[in-house]
Amino acid sequence: MAALKLYHNPRCSKSREALALLEAKGAEFAIVEYLKNSPTASEIEKLIRTSDDRPAAFVRTGDASFKEAGLSLAPDADAAEVAKLIAAHPALMQRPILASADKAVVGRPVENLLKLL
């Protein structure tokens, strides 16, 4: 089993860039298509807590569906609050995200993923 997981949306250009980058580097990883197999709030919270990014960085607040749903998120929202929001609205999870057993990185820019290789 791969030690790394790429939380991936094949329709997203940045996510496809991340996939190509990891493949070019010969990285061994599993792909998690999070829109088909949504992570639980506790799984999302673990990703957030093992990242150096602030919790709000895991949410696509600029996405039209975020605004259309009337959602809001404080810049200083905690991991549990963000995880709950993403679990309820998986399409709003930032992508790509690369995770190991004890570290997660938001791939914005995709070169951030190299921190785990």
SSE arrangement, N to C: EHEHHHEE
pLDDT below 50 for ≥5 consecutive residues: which ranges? none
> How many separate helices?
4
Largest sheet entry: 4 strands, mixed
CATH architecture: 3-Layer(aba) Sandwich
Proportion of strand residues: 5-15%
The CATH topology annotation reads as Glutaredoxin
Average pLDDT value? 95
How many discrete domains?
A: 1
Estimate the global geometry from the Cα principal axes: globular
Query: Roughly how many Å apart are the termini?
Result: 16 Å
Name of the CATH class = Alpha Beta
Fraction of residues in H or I helices: 25-40%
Strand order across the largest sheet: 2-1-3-4
Provide the fold topology.
Layout: E1 4-8, H1 13-24, E2 29-33, H2 41-49, H3 64-68, H4 79-88, E3 97-99, E4 104-106
Parallel strand pairs: 1-2
Antiparallel strand pairs: 1-3, 3-4
Helix pairs in contact: 2-4
